[in-house]
Design a protein that fits this description.
The structure is a homopentamer. Chain A contains ten helices and seven strands. With about 350 residues, chain A is α+β, with helices and mostly antiparallel strands. The first copy, chain A, is rod-shaped. The relative contact order of chain A is 0.09.
């Protein structure tokens, strides 16, 4: 996991600002483009290749959703950005997949970077992917690192004739896509919740079987999740209060709703961090407790047998003159003494609640 | 408990925003509706079923309190909401019982979500239930998950002819219901206080008998209680400073009073969290102390008998030439030596304060 | 102590807001009232009973300080409040002795709730009492739970002919009383400081003699003291910046001075909390250290004698063929060997700094 | 140290506000006064006694620095304050040497309280002294508890003919004195830094030789230093942004510079607190580690010899029928067995990395 | 490292404000100066010595970057500053290499102090160097303590004919240099990340091999890095929102980009601090765990053999009347008994999960 969440920017350090350079792991081989065009009456889906891409006109009527998968081919990204008059610094941010989530209200468009997370149950790691959104007039352009199905619900709804997304404009489409993204966070939070629950159960049952390094990885995940979710709070808040020309007033209640959801995610992440700290504390307490228990057994055992062993050692001595050795019954008397000592000690330990 | 406070939203993830879908556990079988209509002179209570519900008119004179129990039947909720012209997103929030507490000042109404908590002493869990309030002209509409008696005091007061609630308008009714809700938090805080007290007593008396996982559950409860109470602070503060047309100026002092009470709850929750942390620390200190005590007994016991056992071991050896064995009195001299060693060690340990 | 600082409000939960109900412990049997009337030339003190109380006129000239001791007799309180036209919600706050400190700037008066604390050295608990102040024209009305001598300095100064309080108006009287109250906090802080100091000394001298539960009580006291002092900060700040008609501009510098004192109390409480945490840490460190020392003694003792005991055990065996047993001098050689082993181990432990 | 930083105000509690009373330890016997008068051309220094003090006129031309050492003689302080028309509450704050640092912008003057700290390397304590400054027209009046040399640099510069202080007005003199004061904090911080460094070195070398109570005193010092430095931040910030008639616009950049220095001191204090916490943690880790090491030696030693001791115990039994005792070579075989067991255990412990 | 990050200011304490004095270690022997002059068509690089420096005119056309390496020669710095009319306090800040990062918007120029950090992998220390920037009309003047290659990317881009830096004005040059500086932080963060990773790996593999003092040094580095990066946040934010005459509106998006990068650095530093704390916790947990394991082995070993040793001790006694000694088979019965005890104990420990 540590590989995934590491800072990758240095590869780029030293390049002129505005020089395009793909930063991140190459996740897919080819840039693939799909265009969904719709209005309230009809919709069409096209998987484009770059030869046909030229035909896309930035003035097509209806709402257009242009989705780009794969960011490593800088030339392709450049072509797309130029077609839509996208500023160089924006282009640079799109291909730098380690960018912090942010929103830029540009003169004629809105640019937004967010992170998609998924919890890989097998490897127990959180995988992150960067998505960039551009809202410009009747176009929403999304840039993903690899094809994913987070946006499937919106895609399905576009196909449905009387859905609200079909009836409304591109800003609602942006909202709908962001809502899908935040919904995917809930899935992640549930997975994390299950993980925390199972750690908790394991600690209570038997603290030995839990893997401390797994738990540390979980805490690290929460740390990095938090780092991505916090900026989203600002982003959605700005969208909800926005007076930008690209966002219609009628869409603002939806953006406010989005903001509510993000706040809920932020709250949950913070609560999970507190929970994880609580589990650490509980783990230390339980370990301490167990050590206490072990110490008691050791102490009781040692304290009872060491005096007895001394006593029998005494009568194992080979002195020629030891009167007790000759006395009949002294052996049995000694047993009596030892039993008495044992019982006394057991009573003492009972009183101390060590037994 | 963890089941109760888990995030449940994913069930809904992927639905179009505005699509109604009940999120939560189905707690009652039927939606039941009651309408209390009153003015300063008379009042009437009606338990409606949906056939008669059509007769409720949103223009009835006097103050009307419409209480809905049970949110799983989406169609019923839809019918009610449409009758009162409630926005789709509000409807969605009402039936999503995992929503964060919030207030929305809409154009012609006020919408408010809060949580009701009760501490189940048997299972030692906090049970939460969501309540939504809509204040619209002379109507207050409340949506509960299951029938509860938190609002009983207000109901009783409405029945009393010269109560203030009878004399005032719907915004005072809203205040009165919220005040009942906050009062129920005090009950919960007292139960938590008793729990913390009993943990504290148990730790001081005997740290072994406390259940660490119970204590962890308590801390988790405080965590989630806090998550619900904090937003209430903002909500009541906004109500107290509100200039919304639905709230009369004469009601503002009452809302300010409500705000004072919420602040007091928030303070108490924070104080309880500090207390719980203090108990954790004390628990660790006491465990440490106890381990120290055990170690001392072990050490004293071992340190006294191990040298003695060595000495008697020496004279248990079978060498043919050991002059001491032949000396008369050497046995008694040895006893003297061993008693001297024992006393010296005891003095040494006394000086070290280990005895 | 826990009994004293517990939340008591639930007793009241369910009453109509504005219904008077005494919340708290009944501390005195009768409500007693005293009225001090003064101007720059003369002063008079009267202990009133309720029969004569009717004669008090809210329009008496000069400055009037009406002090009420005992809040459990609701009727008496009602009578007083009605005479001075005090709002129902204010009355409710006066008799609810668990209220959070607060200030209300009403149209024609200022209402203020604060806590008085005293440290009971015998029981080592902090006792709290609620005081309410009403400043209305030339009247200052104070409500105490039981007669106390915190305000004695002001009382004495009123008796002194050329004191400033005699020369100035009712707002200065309010300031003077609040100043007495804050001064009483300093006394409490000093007592706490002594307690912390003695804990610190005890820990350094001998950590066994300190009572962890006493220390925990101290931390709890700080926690609740803080809960009461923080609101006072806002209160005094609002008084210092107030433009309310009841506060003259010439009194503002004194209110500013009061604010400075409150800030100093707040700072001290925070510093004491940090100190208390530091002591907890030091306690853990010292306990750890002591355990280390014990372990060393145990380990050194065991590590030296266990090998020796083994050796003498070897020659205590009864094998018929053990050549060494027959050799003359082997006994003394063995002693030499054992002394050598002992010295080697001692050197080893010295090098490890365990001795 | 605890004696020095204790709250002393209670001695005064109960006095009328504005009653002068010296609070603090009497540090010098006599109040001594010195007056430095200068302008760009000349300067004169006078040590005044109170007989001649009458001759000082508050209207002398040039810049005047009046320095008072010793605050216990209330009458002297009163005389001075009256001559310069200083408000009673200010006078009260000057002689209360436990006052929190603060700034008051009065109508015709600026009043400022700060703390001077010095680290006494011998006693390892921080000694604090209060300094008050009054800037009124062409006078700067400073009140110190005892004569000190913190202001020596300014004094020297005044003696130098072409220094900036000589060329500028009284507000620059105030700045220059405050700058000296902040410079003295740097000296203190360096001493603390050395202390922290030496604690760190000692812990790494050998944790036993450090004195926990000394370390606790260091942390306490940081706590109280912080309490004094934080208000200075506000004070210098207010000076830098001041539009008060006593501060010329040309002096503001210098005040801004002062603010920068104070911020740097605040940052350092915070960083030192973090460092001190880090050292506490490291100390606990190292102690833990050492205990681990001790435990390993104990365990290895015990685990090897206890089985061997058992074995030789077996053949020390006196049963009449023990066939092995008669076998020739069984003694040597037993030695072989014991060596084998020892080696096995050593290999086992090596694998566990305990050796 | 501690030497490097120590406060050095005291050396200067006592000098008149505005007196130039080099504070810091002398890192290079001579002050070297280089001037790069360029416009969109051509560029020239000159390494100046002070004889030729007189020829530099502050009115040269094109963009000029004057870089000074070495600050210890106060006279040289003075000469440069006077040529460009730089205020005395600014000059003082430039040569005080322990100054906190800050920005000053002066009337005709912008003055900025920042820190450059590099992680020395050999000595595992962070080395810091102060850089000051002055932007004044078409001049950017940089003051470094020693020659470094952090600005190489900008230098290279200036050499490239169609680079953006060549086309734009001096404010873009300032941005470009600051961007290089922030890029160098990323390099440092990666090195720290690697360090943290390797600590983490070592702890999981074998906690004994990690050096606690190295880890403490790492935490200290983060502490001081944070101290330098936090002010940069304000600085870049002020640049991005600046309306100063030296910054063109077209450069603001680049400054905003710079701000984004600084925020990302700040976030990472905070995350690393959390990570480091997490590692400390994990280390303590693992150490605790290991101690537990050791204790178990000790306890199991002792608890099994101590009773057996007692038993064989019993039959090593030399009493004349011990019937069992005479019985045939009692030796073998005893072995059976001992084997039974051993197995019972092993089962007991298995059940307790200690084996």
């Amino acid at each position: 996991m540590s590989k995934k969440i590491k800072l990758k920017k240095s590869k780029k350090a030293g390049l002129a600002p505005g020089t395009l350079f793909f930063v991140g792991e190459k996740k897919v081989n080819n840039t693939s483009i799909s265009l969904i065009n719709y209005n309230s009456e009809k919709f069409s889906t096209n998987n484009l290749d770059f030869n046909y891409f030229e035909q896309v006109s930035s003035t097509t009527s209806g709402v257009n959703w242009l989705n780009i998968n794969g960011l490593h081919n800088i030339d392709d990204i450049k072509k797309i950005c130029r077609k839509f008059d996208i500023h160089n610094l924006v282009m640079e941010d799109i291909v730098n997949t380690t960018h912090r989530p942010k929103i830029d209200f540009l003169d004629d468009s809105i640019f937004l970077i967010a992170k998609m997370y998924s919890f890989n149950q097998d490897k127990r790691i959180i995988q992150s992917e960067q998505v960039s959104f551009i809202l410009k007039n009747n176009f929403v352009i999304t840039f993903q690192e690899e094809p994913g199905d987070v946006f499937k619900p919106t895609r399905d709804r576009i196909k449905s004739d009387n859905s609200r997304v079909r009836a409304l404009a591109a800003d609602y489409l942006l909202y709908s896509l962001l809502d899908n993204l935040v919904d995917s966070y809930y899935q992640l939070l549930e997975d994390l919740d299950d993980s925390i629950d199972s750690f908790e159960q394991n600690i209570i049952k038997d603290s030995n079987s839990i893997s401390l390094s797994d738990f540390f990885t979980l805490k690290k995940s929460l740390l990095f999740l938090r780092k991505s979710v916090w900026p989203l709070r600002d982003i959605s808040s700005q969208l909800a209060r926005s007076e930008h020309n690209q966002i219609k007033t009628t869409t603002l209640p939806y953006m406010k709703d989005l903001y509510d959801h993000v706040i809920q995610v932020v709250d949950s992440v913070e609560a999970f961090r507190d929970l994880a700290n609580g589990i650490t504390e509980m783990y230390l307490s339980i370990t301490n407790n167990r050590m206490n228990e072990i110490m008691k057994v050791l102490t009781v055992c040692t304290s009872i047998f060491i005096p007895l062993t001394f006593i029998v050692g005494v009568y194992g001595m080979n002195f020629e003159f030891m009167p007790e050795l000759k006395w009949k019954g002294s052996y049995f008397f000694l047993w009596g003494l030892m039993i008495f000592i044992t019982i006394s000690l057991i009573v003492f330990f009972k009183k101390k609640k060590w037994l």
